[in-house]
Amino acid sequence: MENTSFGFRSELTLDPFVIPPGGKYPIFFLGLAIYCFAIFCNLILLTLIILKRNLHKPMYFILFSLPLNDLIGMTAMLPKVISDVVTETNKVYYPLCVLQAFLLHMYGGGILFILAAMSFDRYAAICMPLRYSSVMTPRLVFFLISLVWGLDFVLIVSLFSLQTRLPRCNSLIMNVFCDNPSLLKLTCENTTVNNIVGLFTTAVMQAISLSIQAFSYVKILITCVVTRRSKAKTKAVNTCLAQLLILIIFEIVATFTILSHRFKYVSADLQKIMGMLIFIVPPLLNPIVYGLYTSEIRKTLLSVLKKKKISV
Protein backbone atom coordinates (compact mmCIF):
# COMPACT_ATOMS: atom_id res chain seq x y z
CA MET A 1 0.00 0.00 0.00
CA GLU A 2 1.27 3.46 -0.84
CA ASN A 3 2.13 5.74 2.06
CA THR A 4 -0.50 8.36 1.38
CA SER A 5 -1.38 10.88 4.08
CA PHE A 6 -5.10 11.45 4.50
CA GLY A 7 -6.30 15.00 5.12
CA PHE A 8 -6.62 16.46 8.59
CA ARG A 9 -10.42 16.48 8.28
CA SER A 10 -10.57 12.93 6.94
CA GLU A 11 -13.24 10.59 8.26
CA LEU A 12 -12.24 7.40 10.07
CA THR A 13 -14.24 4.22 10.43
CA LEU A 14 -14.60 2.53 13.82
CA ASP A 15 -14.92 -1.25 14.09
CA PRO A 16 -18.43 -1.71 15.58
CA PHE A 17 -19.84 -4.37 17.91
CA VAL A 18 -21.64 -7.34 16.40
CA ILE A 19 -25.09 -6.69 17.89
CA PRO A 20 -27.88 -9.27 17.59
CA PRO A 21 -31.27 -8.16 16.19
CA GLY A 22 -33.23 -6.18 18.77
CA GLY A 23 -30.21 -5.76 21.00
CA LYS A 24 -29.21 -2.18 20.26
CA TYR A 25 -31.87 -0.48 22.39
CA PRO A 26 -31.29 -2.60 25.53
CA ILE A 27 -27.54 -1.97 25.15
CA PHE A 28 -28.15 1.75 24.65
CA PHE A 29 -30.39 2.12 27.73
CA LEU A 30 -28.04 0.01 29.86
CA GLY A 31 -25.10 2.18 28.83
CA LEU A 32 -27.11 5.35 29.40
CA ALA A 33 -28.17 4.17 32.89
CA ILE A 34 -24.56 3.35 33.81
CA TYR A 35 -23.36 6.72 32.52
CA CYS A 36 -26.07 8.73 34.32
CA PHE A 37 -25.50 6.87 37.61
CA ALA A 38 -21.72 7.42 37.45
CA ILE A 39 -22.18 11.11 36.59
CA PHE A 40 -24.67 11.53 39.44
CA CYS A 41 -22.39 9.89 42.04
CA ASN A 42 -19.28 11.80 40.99
CA LEU A 43 -21.14 15.14 40.87
CA ILE A 44 -22.43 14.53 44.40
CA LEU A 45 -18.87 13.97 45.61
CA LEU A 46 -17.64 17.11 43.83
CA THR A 47 -20.55 19.18 45.18
CA LEU A 48 -19.98 18.04 48.78
CA ILE A 49 -16.30 18.97 48.61
CA ILE A 50 -17.10 22.40 47.15
CA LEU A 51 -19.99 23.36 49.44
CA LYS A 52 -19.24 21.75 52.80
CA ARG A 53 -16.67 23.59 54.90
CA ASN A 54 -15.83 20.50 56.99
CA LEU A 55 -14.45 18.95 53.79
CA HIS A 56 -12.22 21.93 53.00
CA LYS A 57 -9.08 20.04 53.99
CA PRO A 58 -5.94 19.03 52.07
CA MET A 59 -7.14 15.43 51.71
CA TYR A 60 -10.40 16.44 50.06
CA PHE A 61 -8.87 19.18 47.92
CA ILE A 62 -6.63 16.48 46.42
CA LEU A 63 -9.53 14.02 46.27
CA PHE A 64 -11.48 16.58 44.21
CA SER A 65 -9.30 15.69 41.22
CA LEU A 66 -10.39 12.04 41.29
CA PRO A 67 -14.13 12.40 40.43
CA LEU A 68 -13.22 15.21 38.03
CA ASN A 69 -10.81 12.88 36.25
CA ASP A 70 -13.42 10.10 36.24
CA LEU A 71 -15.97 12.41 34.61
CA ILE A 72 -13.47 13.33 31.89
CA GLY A 73 -12.58 9.70 31.13
CA MET A 74 -16.11 8.33 31.08
CA THR A 75 -17.58 11.25 29.11
CA ALA A 76 -14.83 11.01 26.52
CA MET A 77 -15.68 7.38 25.80
CA LEU A 78 -19.17 6.10 26.72
CA PRO A 79 -21.60 8.64 25.14
CA LYS A 80 -19.95 8.23 21.73
CA VAL A 81 -19.99 4.43 21.94
CA ILE A 82 -23.64 4.07 23.00
CA SER A 83 -24.79 6.70 20.47
CA ASP A 84 -23.01 4.76 17.70
CA VAL A 85 -24.79 1.59 18.85
CA VAL A 86 -28.29 3.06 18.65
CA THR A 87 -27.72 5.08 15.45
CA GLU A 88 -25.70 2.29 13.82
CA THR A 89 -23.02 4.75 12.76
CA ASN A 90 -19.31 4.12 13.15
CA LYS A 91 -17.67 7.21 11.73
CA VAL A 92 -15.46 9.80 13.44
CA TYR A 93 -13.36 12.69 12.15
CA TYR A 94 -9.63 12.39 12.71
CA PRO A 95 -9.28 15.46 15.03
CA LEU A 96 -12.12 14.20 17.25
CA CYS A 97 -10.54 10.76 17.30
CA VAL A 98 -7.22 12.21 18.44
CA LEU A 99 -8.99 14.33 21.07
CA GLN A 100 -10.84 11.30 22.43
CA ALA A 101 -7.65 9.25 22.58
CA PHE A 102 -5.80 12.10 24.29
CA LEU A 103 -8.48 12.51 26.98
CA LEU A 104 -8.66 8.77 27.62
CA HIS A 105 -4.90 8.51 28.09
CA MET A 106 -4.97 11.60 30.33
CA TYR A 107 -7.61 9.83 32.41
CA GLY A 108 -5.47 6.71 32.83
CA GLY A 109 -2.39 8.61 33.91
CA GLY A 110 -4.48 10.93 36.06
CA ILE A 111 -5.77 8.08 38.25
CA LEU A 112 -2.22 6.91 39.00
CA PHE A 113 -0.87 10.37 39.85
CA ILE A 114 -3.92 11.40 41.91
CA LEU A 115 -3.71 8.24 44.02
CA ALA A 116 0.00 8.90 44.56
CA ALA A 117 -0.71 12.44 45.81
CA MET A 118 -3.49 11.17 48.06
CA SER A 119 -1.24 8.48 49.56
CA PHE A 120 1.39 11.13 50.39
CA ASP A 121 -1.28 13.17 52.16
CA ARG A 122 -2.27 10.12 54.24
CA TYR A 123 1.40 9.48 55.03
CA ALA A 124 1.77 13.02 56.35
CA ALA A 125 -1.48 12.77 58.36
CA ILE A 126 -0.71 9.44 60.02
CA CYS A 127 3.07 9.46 60.33
CA MET A 128 3.44 13.15 61.15
CA PRO A 129 0.15 14.08 62.88
CA LEU A 130 1.61 16.93 64.95
CA ARG A 131 3.24 18.53 61.90
CA TYR A 132 0.48 17.75 59.39
CA SER A 133 -0.85 21.31 59.14
CA SER A 134 2.65 22.72 58.70
CA VAL A 135 3.56 20.09 56.08
CA MET A 136 0.34 20.07 54.02
CA THR A 137 0.12 23.83 53.58
CA PRO A 138 -2.21 25.36 50.95
CA ARG A 139 0.86 26.11 48.84
CA LEU A 140 2.02 22.46 48.91
CA VAL A 141 -1.50 21.19 48.19
CA PHE A 142 -1.75 23.52 45.20
CA PHE A 143 1.70 22.37 44.05
CA LEU A 144 0.74 18.68 44.31
CA ILE A 145 -2.50 19.17 42.37
CA SER A 146 -0.68 21.20 39.70
CA LEU A 147 2.06 18.57 39.51
CA VAL A 148 -0.49 15.77 39.09
CA TRP A 149 -2.23 17.41 36.13
CA GLY A 150 0.90 19.06 34.70
CA LEU A 151 3.03 15.90 34.66
CA ASP A 152 0.16 13.88 33.23
CA PHE A 153 -0.40 16.48 30.49
CA VAL A 154 3.30 16.69 29.55
CA LEU A 155 3.73 12.91 29.32
CA ILE A 156 0.61 12.41 27.20
CA VAL A 157 1.42 15.37 24.92
CA SER A 158 4.92 13.97 24.34
CA LEU A 159 3.35 10.63 23.44
CA PHE A 160 0.82 12.06 20.98
CA SER A 161 3.20 14.63 19.46
CA LEU A 162 5.09 11.75 17.83
CA GLN A 163 1.98 10.95 15.80
CA THR A 164 2.28 14.13 13.78
CA ARG A 165 5.39 12.88 11.98
CA LEU A 166 3.65 9.77 10.65
CA PRO A 167 1.62 9.79 7.40
CA ARG A 168 -1.66 7.86 7.44
CA CYS A 169 -2.46 5.22 4.84
CA ASN A 170 -5.45 3.63 6.54
CA SER A 171 -8.78 4.87 7.87
CA LEU A 172 -10.00 1.92 9.98
CA ILE A 173 -9.83 2.14 13.79
CA MET A 174 -9.86 -1.43 15.10
CA ASN A 175 -11.89 -0.50 18.17
CA VAL A 176 -15.18 1.15 19.17
CA PHE A 177 -13.27 4.15 20.51
CA CYS A 178 -9.97 5.85 19.69
CA ASP A 179 -6.75 5.29 21.58
CA ASN A 180 -3.05 5.65 20.86
CA PRO A 181 -2.44 2.04 19.68
CA SER A 182 -5.40 2.27 17.30
CA LEU A 183 -4.13 5.55 15.88
CA LEU A 184 -0.68 4.07 15.34
CA LYS A 185 -2.22 1.30 13.23
CA LEU A 186 -3.40 3.94 10.73
CA THR A 187 0.16 4.42 9.46
CA CYS A 188 2.25 2.22 7.22
CA GLU A 189 5.49 3.69 8.55
CA ASN A 190 7.76 2.17 11.18
CA THR A 191 6.23 2.82 14.61
CA THR A 192 9.09 1.41 16.72
CA VAL A 193 9.92 4.80 18.24
CA ASN A 194 6.27 5.42 19.10
CA ASN A 195 5.95 2.01 20.71
CA ILE A 196 9.09 2.51 22.77
CA VAL A 197 7.96 5.96 23.92
CA GLY A 198 4.51 4.56 24.73
CA LEU A 199 5.96 1.76 26.84
CA PHE A 200 8.37 4.18 28.50
CA THR A 201 5.56 6.63 29.32
CA THR A 202 3.45 3.85 30.83
CA ALA A 203 6.42 2.55 32.83
CA VAL A 204 7.23 6.04 34.16
CA MET A 205 3.63 6.62 35.25
CA GLN A 206 3.40 3.26 36.97
CA ALA A 207 6.84 3.59 38.58
CA ILE A 208 6.19 7.08 39.97
CA SER A 209 2.72 6.25 41.25
CA LEU A 210 3.38 2.81 42.72
CA SER A 211 6.71 3.77 44.33
CA ILE A 212 5.14 6.76 46.11
CA GLN A 213 2.17 4.69 47.24
CA ALA A 214 4.34 1.78 48.37
CA PHE A 215 6.57 4.12 50.38
CA SER A 216 3.58 5.88 51.95
CA TYR A 217 1.66 2.75 52.92
CA VAL A 218 4.72 0.91 54.25
CA LYS A 219 5.51 3.92 56.44
CA ILE A 220 1.89 4.03 57.60
CA LEU A 221 1.95 0.32 58.43
CA ILE A 222 5.20 0.70 60.38
CA THR A 223 3.77 3.65 62.30
CA CYS A 224 0.67 1.68 63.25
CA VAL A 225 2.72 -1.31 64.41
CA VAL A 226 5.20 0.78 66.40
CA THR A 227 2.64 2.98 68.15
CA ARG A 228 0.46 -0.02 69.08
CA ARG A 229 -2.50 2.30 69.42
CA SER A 230 -5.86 1.03 68.21
CA LYS A 231 -6.93 4.56 67.22
CA ALA A 232 -3.93 4.95 64.94
CA LYS A 233 -4.60 1.58 63.32
CA THR A 234 -8.29 2.39 62.85
CA LYS A 235 -7.46 5.76 61.33
CA ALA A 236 -4.98 4.14 58.95
CA VAL A 237 -7.50 1.55 57.81
CA ASN A 238 -10.35 4.03 57.39
CA THR A 239 -8.34 6.60 55.44
CA CYS A 240 -6.21 4.28 53.30
CA LEU A 241 -8.55 1.39 52.51
CA ALA A 242 -10.58 3.39 50.00
CA GLN A 243 -7.45 4.50 48.12
CA LEU A 244 -6.06 0.97 48.06
CA LEU A 245 -9.36 -0.43 46.79
CA ILE A 246 -9.48 2.14 43.99
CA LEU A 247 -5.90 1.30 42.99
CA ILE A 248 -6.63 -2.45 43.06
CA ILE A 249 -9.80 -2.02 40.99
CA PHE A 250 -7.97 0.03 38.36
CA GLU A 251 -4.97 -2.32 38.16
CA ILE A 252 -7.15 -5.46 37.93
CA VAL A 253 -9.29 -4.03 35.14
CA ALA A 254 -6.20 -2.74 33.29
CA THR A 255 -4.48 -6.13 33.63
CA PHE A 256 -7.49 -8.01 32.28
CA THR A 257 -7.67 -5.57 29.37
CA ILE A 258 -4.01 -6.10 28.49
CA LEU A 259 -4.32 -9.89 28.81
CA SER A 260 -7.42 -9.96 26.60
CA HIS A 261 -5.31 -8.57 23.74
CA ARG A 262 -2.56 -11.15 24.29
CA PHE A 263 -4.68 -14.28 23.76
CA LYS A 264 -5.82 -15.06 20.23
CA TYR A 265 -8.89 -17.03 21.30
CA VAL A 266 -10.47 -13.96 22.95
CA SER A 267 -13.17 -12.57 20.64
CA ALA A 268 -12.86 -9.08 19.20
CA ASP A 269 -16.07 -7.93 20.91
CA LEU A 270 -14.85 -9.18 24.30
CA GLN A 271 -11.58 -7.29 23.80
CA LYS A 272 -13.55 -4.12 23.07
CA ILE A 273 -15.70 -4.60 26.18
CA MET A 274 -12.62 -5.20 28.34
CA GLY A 275 -11.08 -2.02 26.94
CA MET A 276 -14.22 -0.07 27.84
CA LEU A 277 -14.23 -1.35 31.44
CA ILE A 278 -11.19 0.79 32.31
CA PHE A 279 -13.28 3.88 31.65
CA ILE A 280 -16.50 2.54 33.21
CA VAL A 281 -15.68 0.53 36.35
CA PRO A 282 -13.46 3.05 38.23
CA PRO A 283 -15.78 6.07 37.64
CA LEU A 284 -18.71 3.88 38.69
CA LEU A 285 -17.12 2.50 41.86
CA ASN A 286 -14.76 5.26 43.05
CA PRO A 287 -17.42 7.56 44.59
CA ILE A 288 -19.20 4.56 46.13
CA VAL A 289 -15.95 3.30 47.68
CA TYR A 290 -15.20 6.71 49.14
CA GLY A 291 -18.75 7.06 50.38
CA LEU A 292 -18.56 3.72 52.17
CA TYR A 293 -15.06 3.86 53.60
CA THR A 294 -14.56 7.57 54.34
CA SER A 295 -16.64 8.35 57.41
CA GLU A 296 -16.44 12.14 57.02
CA ILE A 297 -17.88 12.06 53.49
CA ARG A 298 -20.53 9.55 54.52
CA LYS A 299 -21.60 11.59 57.56
CA THR A 300 -21.66 14.81 55.53
CA LEU A 301 -23.87 13.24 52.86
CA LEU A 302 -26.22 11.76 55.47
CA SER A 303 -26.53 15.13 57.22
CA VAL A 304 -27.44 16.80 53.92
CA LEU A 305 -30.07 14.12 53.21
CA LYS A 306 -31.54 14.52 56.71
CA LYS A 307 -31.81 18.28 56.27
CA LYS A 308 -33.53 17.77 52.91
CA LYS A 309 -35.96 15.31 54.49
CA ILE A 310 -36.74 17.67 57.38
CA SER A 311 -37.27 20.63 55.04
CA VAL A 312 -39.66 18.55 52.92
Care to describe what's here?
This protein has 312 residues and is mainly α. The protein has one domain: Rhopdopsin 7-helix transmembrane proteins (Up-down Bundle). Helix content is 75%, strand content 3%. The chain is built from eleven helices and three strands; from the N terminus they run E-H-H-H-E-H-H-H-E-H-H-H-H-H. The protein has a three-stranded mixed β-sheet. Helix 3 runs antiparallel to helix 4, helix 4 packs antiparallel against helix 9 and helix 9 runs antiparallel to helix 10. It is globular. It starts with 10 loop residues before the first strand and ends with a helix.
In terms of topology, how is this protein built?
Layout: E1 11-14, H1 24-51, H2 58-63, H3 65-87, E2 91-93, H4 94-127, H5 132-135, H6 138-161, E3 172-173, H7 180-184, H8 192-227, H9 230-260, H10 268-293, H11 295-311
Parallel strand pairs: 1-3
Antiparallel strand pairs: 1-2
